[in-house]
Amino acid sequence: MKPINDIFPQIAQPSKVVITMHQKPDGDAMGSALGLYGFLKKLGHEVTVISPTNWASWLNWMPGCDGVLNYEKHHERSAELLNKADYLYCLDFNIFHRTKNLASLLANATCTKVLIDHHEQPDTASFDYGISDITKSSTCEMVFDFIVASGNDKLIDANIARCLYSGVVTDTGSFRFSSTHASVHRMVARLMETDFDHAQVHSNLFDNFLENRLRFIGHVLSNRMEFLYEYNTALIAISKQDLLKYEIKTGDTEGLVNYPLTVKGIELVGLVIDRDEERKWSFRSKRGFDCNTFARKYFNGGGHYNASGGNTKDSLSQTVETFKQAVKENEHLLV
Q1: Closest CA to 327 of 238, 223, 229, 222
Q2: Domain extents for the chain?
Q3: CA atoms within 13 A on the CB side of 179
Q4: Given the DSSP bridges, would you call strands 302-303 and 307-312 parallel, antiparallel or unpaired?
Q5: How do residues 242-289 score in pLDDT, each as one tens digit?
Q6: DSSP 3-state assignment of 233?
Q7: Of 56, 204, 240, 289, which residue is the least packed, with the fewest Cβ within 10 Å?
């Protein structure tokens, strides 16, 4: 994989571009994709954003989101666009299997592939150009750096700013995580020069849910949360029945894994959700525990040091027992 700066001379020439991100895109994935989309459109490129799956409805306000293709609904159109593309930008993931059913199409695409991502252990052999930097707060910060380094900072407008700000806010936990370095605040200061309404963006991201989600969270915290104080660990296990009862949609469980970290002494939180085809895990930790290694070793996953995910085909009860055994094996790192 060549350094991403090597592609700068090529972006001056209009071309056909596809941008994609990981499945079930969050604020950073969608924000970085649409921020880059707005930038490349200003340079005269023909750009399409393709999501591997659907996404949370509270992301629909983002400028350009109404034009994003859902691969699960638009197989043929997505394949056609990828076949004709000159460049494929892959954002907020670093290995193709994180794009679910879109993975084989991306792997077999013959266009130039560009990676912009901040997760650990990238599959660099699959990309022609790129940058992987785990010290960055978000992929949105990296897209901002990409725009600035290309010499096109002046093209950042309010719409691009809204998208990039969204990803930074969500991935830094509203600027409270340790990944919020000075560069993040300098970026935000630059974005705010476009006069976008940052308070409205925050409201769009965090004050945009239905009553059933709030009642669901209350139910989960009261009935599905377990504390393993001997290991400074908390566990939340959500059944398929819980999801159906409260009519939970994509994005409604966002942030739920962080609640137990507010309890004094808790160093690790595991959240597992019983989905149709698999059990999906999310892990969060405080400074001293490596979630990425934990997720990779036990749950076919990975991500960041303090925030990772995984999955398993085991039943809900089986995977909960696996988690408890894994925590016991890592007791020396947690207490």
Answers
A1: 229
A2: 2-206, 212-334
A3: 25
A4: antiparallel
A5: 999 999 998 899 899 999 999 999 999 999 999 888 999 999 998 789
A6: strand
A7: 240
- By the 10 Å C-beta count (0-12 exposed, 13-18 middle, 19+ buried), 152 is classed as middle
Residue 56 neighbours by CB under 8 Å, 6+ apart: 26, 249, 250, 251, 252, 254
CA 328 from centroid of its chain's CA atoms: 29
CA 7 from centroid of its chain's CA atoms: 24
Name residues whose C-beta falls within 8 Å of residue 258's C-beta, 6 or more positions apart in sequence. 173, 269, 284
The topology under which CATH files domain 212-334 is Diaminopimelate Epimerase; Chain A, domain 1 (3.10.310)
Q: What is the pTM for the complete model shown?
A: 0.91
C-alpha 270/C-alpha 51 separation (Å) is 26
Please, how many CA atoms are within 13 Å of residue 152, restricted to the half-sphere of its CB? 20
Nearest Cα to Cα of residue 21 among 73, 70, 57: 70
- pLDDT, one tens digit per residue, over 315-328 is 999 999 999 999 99
In terms of Cβ atoms closer than 10 Å to its own Cβ (0-12, 13-18, 19+), residue 138 is buried
> CA 173, CA 176: separation in Å to the nearest integer?
5
Tokens of 89: 């930008």
